[in-house]
Amino acid sequence: MIECEYDRTNVEHTCEQELVDFSMVKLRPFREDEVVKVAAMHCDIFPEYFLSHLGQSFMALFYREFVDNGQSCGYVAEYNGELIGFVAGTEQSLLFLHQLYKRNFMRLALLVMYGLLTDQVVRHNIRKRSAHLRFAWRALWKSNRSEDGPPKGLSSPSCSVLAIGVKPQFRRLGIAEKLLSEFSTHIHQKGVQKISLTVLPENTGAIAFYRKCGWHQESHSATSIKYCNNMSINEKS
Ligand SMILES: CC(C)(COP(=O)(O)OP(=O)(O)OC[C@H]1O[C@@H](n2cnc3c(N)ncnc32)[C@H](O)[C@@H]1OP(=O)(O)O)[C@@H](O)C(=O)NCCC(=O)NCCS
């Protein structure tokens, strides 16, 4: 178990009536028996997002892929036995998607069909995911992921943070910063120099957070901003 070495160790902080003893916050990789809780946290933290509308069962299959996986990993922050935040990412985003779709194709397909029948957000946005649907279909049949082009929204097979979130009552306490740092250290120790992520342009809180963590904007489109943390550049400067 990795414990946080918070600068603000033992400082009590009031955040929406929560008193948080930072020495009690622990970071560790999440376990298989916790993927449902992480999925539930994801859906609570990102209620408007397309993937959340596909439901907790869909998200649990997604987060299961980070457990015991040599190239992908996920950490949770735990406080008094409660999971209060998480980060998940992969060294190889295309391989991650290929494996996710290949291993879970039938279950994911059924959950998408259920979403199409029951959820307007899924119905309205499914066309924008057509590249993912094609990628998933090809992943089912092909063992060689290099034959597949990247789905839209994942422009290159890069090392990426795929999700990070902290429960609202535990925000602005340094928890996401520690989660991101833990993930980045793990990835950099494996020899990967550059980590990327994308954020919605309207998500100003997250953008301020990535800037505060020293990440640099790499590209910008109408629908997303790409940030990166490049260790080789950081080391030189
Ligand atoms: C973005 C998020 C993960 C930040 O988590 P957090 O635990 O509150 O972040 P931290 O406490 O580690 O923040 C560290 C610093 O980042 C900056 N920061 C974080 N959130 C910020 C916000 N909403 N507005 C402005 N600056 C912010 C601050 O400089 C902060 O330091 P300070 O509190 O001493 O000023 C959290 O707000 C969240 O879960 N948001 C919803 C999910 C989301 O949008 N995830 C990102 C998707 S790309």
From TrEMBL:
Q: Give UniProt keywords alphabetically.
A: Acyltransferase, Transferase
Residues making up the signal peptide according to the UniProt record: none
**Residue limits of the N-acetyltransferase domain?**
25-237
Q: Which PROSITE patterns match?
A: GNAT
Q: GO molecular function: any one?
A: acyltransferase activity, transferring groups other than amino-acyl groups
Q: Which domain of life is it from?
A: Bacteria
Q: Known InterPro entries for this protein?
A: Acyl_CoA_acyltransferase, Bact_Acetyltransf, GNAT_dom
The record's annotation in Pfam families points to: Acetyltransf_1
**PANTHER family for the chain:** AMINOALKYLPHOSPHONATE N-ACETYLTRANSFERASE-RELATED, AMINOALKYLPHOSPHONATE N-ACETYLTRANSFERASE-RELATED-RELATED
The name on file for this protein is Acetyltransferase
